[in-house]
Design a protein that fits this description.
- The mean pLDDT is 83.
- It is built from 3 helices and no strands.
- The protein has one domain.
- It is mostly helical.
- 70% of the residues lie in helices and 0% in strands.
Length: 82
């Protein structure tokens, strides 16, 4: 068993990634990522060299999730005032 500490932002971003990739949970997402590394996927890519891009994409996804959440909240409020 592996335990990893995540900030709320990191957790939300990973949950968003689960939705995008179809993973059932962060554990499934992590297992799939580790299997890919173990099986030699992307051997030409040095682990960590893509992390800046990954973090940037995760921040972007997190912002989009927050925007969507705000829009859903506004939609629900507008329906209750009708």
């Amino acid at each position: 068993m592996i335990s990893v500490r995540l900030s709320d932002e990191e957790y939300s971003a990973l949950m968003g990634l689960c939705l995008v990739t179809g993973a059932r949970s962060i554990s499934d997402l992590a297992r799939d990522a580790m299997r890919a590394l173990q099986n030699g996927a992307n051997r030409e890519v040095v682990p960590g060299s893509y992390m800046d891009e990954f973090r940037s994409q995760m921040r972007s996804m997190d912002k989009k999730i927050e925007q969507l959440s705000a829009e859903i909240t506004m939609f629900k409020r507008s329906r209750t005032t009708e």
